[in-house]
């Protein structure tokens, strides 16, 4: 997993890198610019489009000057716009790259930019070095960039956005943000989506051991993290090895939730799935999913199951049932949807949840549980406190779902698509997570693998159906994610 460092730590990263690998900050900047160019080439923009690079006086501007040089060499029609006063001192690497701008690249002060231009604007004005509230002198520059009607690409961060805390001033509204080494924390906050556009991660070859010296609770999950966390099963494995799980889900009119979670559990390899549903509704699930078994007792011996998932479509009139279930099951369980809403209004039950269990609220359910948050950073901090206090894991669902663990670490998922914002997508996830717990995954690994596969299945469904995607399509794509990630 990629560690997400703070803006201040990025400065120190330079020196750690120089010490360990003997690579100068200037070479690191060149790598960043080359990495940007690799992404640019993959975008196959038309060469007829002129490119305008707005550069600040710090290293973000330095990246911009280097990118302008490389684009010019590649045959692009490039112009540079300086976002600083004549006579300002530039960072040494920015100055070096400014000096290296080829003669054929026009270089103007920013206020000479003609807003009737069409083309691509590269925003290399401010990056992680932005400190405090943005100065008045920067307002018109950001306003000018935002008035440009063409494609806007921000380097590292949209200018004006603070790397890891809420921003109040004006911010560039980019179509793409190409961020180096790891996504800066603020890029992953839902309230910043209007500024970031699509986030692209550009690798600059910083080896993971270099990150070790930097403390950070935040991590970004990547595809390569998934396979090693999956369990490997042998040739003689039988269905008992793949877990016996129970799902307490569904109610009159909401049996679809029980069907989706049961199917998802089976699709992710659960050996035996038993759905506890109202007896009157059994015909619906048994004809929809013949592979699932049904039981109807309210207080069964829950501990005969390896894992238990509670909540999808359960109904808000099931307080007593939830209480009995929390008392009856002693291993980590999954609590979702109505189970979370019931816990929020009956807080005395929170202490009954087995330690290390997983709660999977969407933002509405989360607010009921921990109160209103002023912004995403505040939300992350409140959730962390909740996890530490109760020794529970919480998944904050949404774009870049956050896995908040009992030890305070918070892991951002990188798979998923807005096409997953559809009824029942969360029920599918509950089935997947319960399935992995039942197969003996730790809660942490169940979450990392489950949330990633779910998001990937959503992407595959979204690629095929766009906004016509429904939760059943996500289910049907789970198998393909196993092939894609080479999970046996
Ligand atoms: N290290 C790495 O690993 C790598 C880092 N890389 C790149 O370096 C970037 C960081 O560069 P950085 O640290 O030089 O800061 P940067 O974002 O250019 O900002 C400084 C400028 O902002 C200005 N400014 C500050 N506060 C302000 C305010 N409130 N309102 C207005 N202005 C304000 C400040 O002005 P000053 O205070 O100096 O007058 C100065 O001009 C990083 O984002 C990435 O792109 C890559 O090359 C890859 C490797
Ligand atoms: N914009 C988005 N980008 C990525 N994933 C999303 C987005 N919106 C929703 N999702 C995912 O879809 C699922 C929706 O779950 P939930 O809100 O519980 O739906 P439901 O209650 O209808 O089943 C979550 O896993 C969430 O992370
Ligand atoms: K920028």
TrEMBL record:
<keyword id="KW-0413">Isomerase</keyword>
<keyword id="KW-0456">Lyase</keyword>
<protein>
    <recommendedName>
        <fullName>Bifunctional NAD(P)H-hydrate repair enzyme</fullName>
        <ecNumber>4.2.1.136</ecNumber>
        <ecNumber>5.1.99.6</ecNumber>
    </recommendedName>
</protein>
<keyword id="KW-0630">Potassium</keyword>
<comment type="similarity">
    <text>Belongs to the NnrD/CARKD family.</text>
</comment>
<feature type="binding site">
    <location>
        <position position="123"/>
    </location>
    <ligand>
        <name>K(+)</name>
    </ligand>
</feature>
<comment type="function">
    <text>Catalyzes the dehydration of the S-form of NAD(P)HX at the expense of ADP, which is converted to AMP. Together with NAD(P)HX epimerase, which catalyzes the epimerization of the S- and R-forms, the enzyme allows the repair of both epimers of NAD(P)HX, a damaged form of NAD(P)H that is a result of enzymatic or heat-dependent hydration.</text>
</comment>
<dbReference type="InterPro" id="IPR000631">
    <property type="entry name" value="CARKD"/>
</dbReference>
<feature type="binding site">
    <location>
        <position position="156"/>
    </location>
    <ligand>
        <name>(6S)-NADPHX</name>
    </ligand>
</feature>
<dbReference type="InterPro" id="IPR029056">
    <property type="entry name" value="Ribokinase-like"/>
</dbReference>
<dbReference type="Pfam" id="PF03853">
    <property type="entry name" value="YjeF_N"/>
</dbReference>
<dbReference type="InterPro" id="IPR017953">
    <property type="entry name" value="Carbohydrate_kinase_pred_CS"/>
</dbReference>
<keyword id="KW-0479">Metal-binding</keyword>
<feature type="binding site">
    <location>
        <position position="257"/>
    </location>
    <ligand>
        <name>(6S)-NADPHX</name>
    </ligand>
</feature>
<comment type="subunit">
    <text>Homotetramer.</text>
</comment>
<feature type="binding site">
    <location>
        <position position="362"/>
    </location>
    <ligand>
        <name>(6S)-NADPHX</name>
    </ligand>
</feature>
<keyword id="KW-0547">Nucleotide-binding</keyword>
<feature type="binding site">
    <location>
        <begin position="59"/>
        <end position="63"/>
    </location>
    <ligand>
        <name>(6S)-NADPHX</name>
    </ligand>
</feature>
<feature type="binding site">
    <location>
        <begin position="397"/>
        <end position="401"/>
    </location>
    <ligand>
        <name>AMP</name>
    </ligand>
</feature>
<feature type="binding site">
    <location>
        <begin position="127"/>
        <end position="133"/>
    </location>
    <ligand>
        <name>(6S)-NADPHX</name>
    </ligand>
</feature>
<comment type="function">
    <text>Catalyzes the epimerization of the S- and R-forms of NAD(P)HX, a damaged form of NAD(P)H that is a result of enzymatic or heat-dependent hydration. This is a prerequisite for the S-specific NAD(P)H-hydrate dehydratase to allow the repair of both epimers of NAD(P)HX.</text>
</comment>
<dbReference type="InterPro" id="IPR030677">
    <property type="entry name" value="Nnr"/>
</dbReference>
<keyword id="KW-0521">NADP</keyword>
<feature type="binding site">
    <location>
        <position position="426"/>
    </location>
    <ligand>
        <name>AMP</name>
    </ligand>
</feature>
<feature type="binding site">
    <location>
        <position position="427"/>
    </location>
    <ligand>
        <name>(6S)-NADPHX</name>
    </ligand>
</feature>
<keyword id="KW-0511">Multifunctional enzyme</keyword>
<comment type="similarity">
    <text>In the C-terminal section; belongs to the NnrD/CARKD family.</text>
</comment>
<keyword id="KW-0067">ATP-binding</keyword>
<feature type="binding site">
    <location>
        <position position="313"/>
    </location>
    <ligand>
        <name>(6S)-NADPHX</name>
    </ligand>
</feature>
<feature type="domain" description="YjeF N-terminal">
    <location>
        <begin position="10"/>
        <end position="212"/>
    </location>
</feature>
<dbReference type="Pfam" id="PF01256">
    <property type="entry name" value="Carb_kinase"/>
</dbReference>
<dbReference type="InterPro" id="IPR036652">
    <property type="entry name" value="YjeF_N_dom_sf"/>
</dbReference>
<feature type="binding site">
    <location>
        <position position="159"/>
    </location>
    <ligand>
        <name>K(+)</name>
    </ligand>
</feature>
<feature type="binding site">
    <location>
        <position position="60"/>
    </location>
    <ligand>
        <name>K(+)</name>
    </ligand>
</feature>
<feature type="domain" description="YjeF C-terminal">
    <location>
        <begin position="222"/>
        <end position="485"/>
    </location>
</feature>
<dbReference type="InterPro" id="IPR004443">
    <property type="entry name" value="YjeF_N_dom"/>
</dbReference>
<keyword id="KW-0520">NAD</keyword>
């Amino acid at each position: 997993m990629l560690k997400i460092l703070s803006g201040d730590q990025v400065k120190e990263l330079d020196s750690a890198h120089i010490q360990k690998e003997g690579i100068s900050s200037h070479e690191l900047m060149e790598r960043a610019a080359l990495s940007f160019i690799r992404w640019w080439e993959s975008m196959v923009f038309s060469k007829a489009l002129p490119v305008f690079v707005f550069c600040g006086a710090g290293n973000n501007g330095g990246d911009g000057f280097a990118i302008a040089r490389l684009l010019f060499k590649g045959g692009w029609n490039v112009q540079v716009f300086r976002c600083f006063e004549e006579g300002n001192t530039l960072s040494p690497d920015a100055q070096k790259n400014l000096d290296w701008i080829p003669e054929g690249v026009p270089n103007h002060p920013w206020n000479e930019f003609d807003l009737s231009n069409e083309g691509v604007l590269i925003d290399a004005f401010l990056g992680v070095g932005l400190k405090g509230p943005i100065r008045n002198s920067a307002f018109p520059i950001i306003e000018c960039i935002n008035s440009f009607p063409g494609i806007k690409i921000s380097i590292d961060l949209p200018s004006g956005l603070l790397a890891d805390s809420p921003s109040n001033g004006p911010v560039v509204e980019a179509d793409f943000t190409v961020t180096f080494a790891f996504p800066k924390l603020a890029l992953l906050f839902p309230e910043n989506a209007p500024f970031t556009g699509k986030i692209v991660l550009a690798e600059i070859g910083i080896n993971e051991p270099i990150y070790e010296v930097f403390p950070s609770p935040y991590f970004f999950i990547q595809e390569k993290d998934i396979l090693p966390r999956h369990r490997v099963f042998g040739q003689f494995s039988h269905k008992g090895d793949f877990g016996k799980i129970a799902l307490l889900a569904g109610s009159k009119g909401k049996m679809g939730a029980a069907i989706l979670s049961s199917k998802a559990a089976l699709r992710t390899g659960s050996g035996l799935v038993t759905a506890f549903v109202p007896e009157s509704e059994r015909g619906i699930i048994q004809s929809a999913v013949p592979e699932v078994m049904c039981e109807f007792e309210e207080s069964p011996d829950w501990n005969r199951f390896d894992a238990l998932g509670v909540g999808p479509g359960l109904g808000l009139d099931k307080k007593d049932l939830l209480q009995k279930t929390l008392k009856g099951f002693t291993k980590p369980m999954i609590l979702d949807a109505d189970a979370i809403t019931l816990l929020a209004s009956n807080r005395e039950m929170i202490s009954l949840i087995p330690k290390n269990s997983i709660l999977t609220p969407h933002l509405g359910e989360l607010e009921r549980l921990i109160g209103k948050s002023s912004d995403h950073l505040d939300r992350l901090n409140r959730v962390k406190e909740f996890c530490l206090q109760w020794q529970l894991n919480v998944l904050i669902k949404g774009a870049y779902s956050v896995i908040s663990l009992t030890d305070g670490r918070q892991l951002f998922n990188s798979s998923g698509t807005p096409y997953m914002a559809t009824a029942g997508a969360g029920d599918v996830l509950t089935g997947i997570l319960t399935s992995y717990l039942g197969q003996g995954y730790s809660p942490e690994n169940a979450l990392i693998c489950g949330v990633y596969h779910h998001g990937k299945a959503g992407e595959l469904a979204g690629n095929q159906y766009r906004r016509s995607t429904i939760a059943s399509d996500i289910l049907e794509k789970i198998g393909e994610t196993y092939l894609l990630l080479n999970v046996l």
